[in-house]
Amino acid sequence: MIAVPALLRQDVPATGLASAIGISTMLLEVAIFAVLIYIVLRFLWATRGSVIIRGLGLLLLVAMVGFFLLTESLPLDRVSYLVDSLAPSVVLGLVVVFHPEIRRAIVQIGDASIFRTFFRRDTRIVPRLLRAIARMSKERIGALIAIERDSTLGELTENGITIDAELNSYLIESIFYPKSALHDGGVVVRDDRIVAASCLFPLSQNPDVDKRLGTRHRAALGLSEDTDAFVLIVSEETGKISTASGGKLNFDLTLEQVEQQLDAALGRKEVA
Hints:
alpha+beta; 2 domains; seven-stranded mixed β-sheet; 7 strands
């Protein structure tokens, strides 16, 4: 039998492999927690109009953290057993009670901007909007158009009339025609589609706002304060075009200025 040198017979140290596995496991756990935190935060943001949902979510989070710290630091076996026993029932009850909000939040998560960047397509939104507001400005037809960006406007569309049609300048004009049943309220645009009309936007409560502002301008400003939506306004009295974004109103703009602001706000490739 051939003798093998002792150096060659030594097993390869497993320290490096174990360390790599440990780091990979840690990274996987961090990724899982990050996804869960993102989903929770996205859910609370998507349902920002519901104080009950936000309050309940924060209350449950504080209670869970408090119970965990309490049971880990003190030998409260009975309390720990009770929490472990009731937790599945509580989660199931919350799912049953709040299933519409949960479903809506899941849909809104799927429509998040992080996914839109991978499925982005060319859009004709800017030229079509410009044609519509140009004609409405000339005819002095009042209009209020909100363009959804990262913040979802799903709650606003629910209180309006569902349209779900391709964005068309003539359709927008028809909606805001004074004798139309849908001309009151605002229109919500998502990508290159008109989602809903006759939507009620939140009025700005800013005490520094000019008291002479009309309802359309206050609604546009209020929506831009609550979300990152870009809002177009056409004055019925003067025909002047204004925009609202980031809690700021821009009055009496030319079509060229509106086009520049739309391109900057949307940041998308436009086709004629």
